[in-house]
Amino acid sequence: MKLLKDSFRVKKKLFFGGRLFYVRCCAHILNLMVKDGIKSVEYIIDKIRDTVNFVNASEARLVRFSEVVQQLQLHTRKLVMDCPTRWNSTYSMLTVALRLREAFFSYNEREVAYVACPTEEEWDKIEKVCDILGFFNEATDIISGTDYPTANLFLSQICTIKKVLDDGAISTDNFIVEMTKKMKAKFDKYWGECNLLMAFGAVMDPRMKFVVIEFAYPKIYHGDESMRNVQHVRCLLYEMYEEYVRSSEAELDGDGGIAGGSSRSTTNSLQSVDHQSNSK
Q1: Using CA atoms, how far apart are residues 26 and 33, in angstroms rounded to an integer?
Q2: Distance CA 150, CA 143 (A)
Q3: b/e map of 174-195 (b: 16 or more CB within 10 Å)?
Q4: Report field, pTM of the whole predicted structure over 0.85
């Protein structure tokens, strides 16, 4: 990474002094937030894992569980085991288990050796957790996409996550408040400061342009901080444009060409157009 930065710096292609060169993985931060949030129900998740292992341990147990599911006329037929290193697979395991919660209770009555059935209160907690994790799962699926550009989608997804956490923080349910508090602490650690690259990616999307910043920032930041960050992004966008103009003019001069027009007058024209667009 250092060698690459030095190479760009020598060629005068390292804009903003390298401030946009290194960005933490958005999907990884979501993963860290979820892990902090589900720590309070880890013991319940272990019960569901133990249940899946218990049922799948023998053909007889699997058949007996399937009979219970069929008698209850449940649409989901098969339990799912998660991969502990992938939180969204844990989310899938929990959502499937929730659809089969009645089967867990019935199976518990028939199978003497089964001792890992969650209580009603524990199921209620898992249901609340899944309601919140659903937003994180959707954001992770969108951000981790490989068939389309993703950097322009980060800001809107992060805005949604912030809204979910803010709503959880003022919930009347103490369990939700405690869970979202841990997740919000991680959010503020990584995204408490204005993320320039995330903002630039959103602005460069022709469907959103700068309007997305003016819409999202009041939801992510509070009061004067929101307006300061909006102006900060606006100023740095023009600064980046200026750097590209100077770089292009230097290349034209080096090739014996004639740089067309002044960068300052071009920027002023852009600012005028931007102002008119905002007025509309």
Answers
A1: 11
A2: 6
A3: ebbeebbebbbebbeebbeebb
A4: no
Residue type, 54: F
Written as one letter, the residue type at 45 is I
pLDDT in tens, 168-223: 999 999 999 999 999 999 998 888 888 888 899 999 999 989 999 999 999 898 88
Least Cα distance to 213 among 200, 169, 222 occurs for 200
Q: Render pLDDT for 96-128 as a digit per residue (tens, 0 to 9).
A: 999 999 999 999 999 999 999 999 999 999 999
Amino acid identity at 96: V
Q: At CB < 8 A and 24+ separation, what contacts does 80-88 make?
A: 80/52, 81/49, 81/52, 81/53, 81/56, 82/49, 87/31, 87/34, 87/35, 87/38, 87/133, 87/136, 88/137, 88/140, 88/141
User: Of 237, 200, 205, 199, which is closest to residue 217 (Cα–Cα)?
Assistant: 199
Residue with tokens 């994790």, as numbered in its chain: 133
